[in-house]
Structures are given as C-alpha cells and as structure tokens.
Design goal:
- By secondary structure, the protein is mainly beta.
- It has one domain.
- It is 10% helix and 43% strand.
- The chain has a three-stranded antiparallel sheet. It has a two-stranded antiparallel ribbon with strand order 3-4.
- 15% of the residues are buried.
- Bound molecules: zinc ion.
- The site of zinc ion (ZN) has 8 residues, from loops.
- The site of zinc ion has 8 residues, from loops.
Length: 60
C-alpha cells in the first residue's frame, strides 16, 4: 500500500491525503487533478496534485 502525502504549506508537516494506491507503479501512473484535502494540521483545504504529493510506501 502506498499512501499519498502532502506537505502542509502552513505548518510544514507531512499530512495524509487519505488517497492510497496499491503499488508505487499505480501511484506513478495516476494523474491527480483538482483534488483537495482537508488538512489535519491547519484545518484548511490544500490542493493535491502530482507536484505536491509524495508517495509513502507502507509495507503493511
Ligand atoms: Zn495545512
């Protein structure tokens, strides 16, 4: 499982977008457009796109 994370521009913290992928390959092939996430760090909504998002593989 790969978790898509962004860095909150207000707090600089890594926050989960709640978006997950089955593999890194699936993550690489996905275009994220017009996704926003309610940020648990600052409470605002942030845009989630391919330049902002980072993949965090989770070997659970
Ligand atoms: Zn934030």
């Amino acid at each position: 499982m790969v978790q898509a994370m962004i860095t909150c521009p207000k707090t600089g913290k890594a926050v989960s977008t709640g978006i997950t992928f089955g593999s890194l390959a699936a993550f690489d092939q996905t275009m994220l457009v017009n996704n926003t996430v309610r940020c648990p760090a600052c409470g605002e909504s942030h845009l989630v796109d391919n330049s902002a998002v980072k993949a965090f593989p989770n070997e659970m």
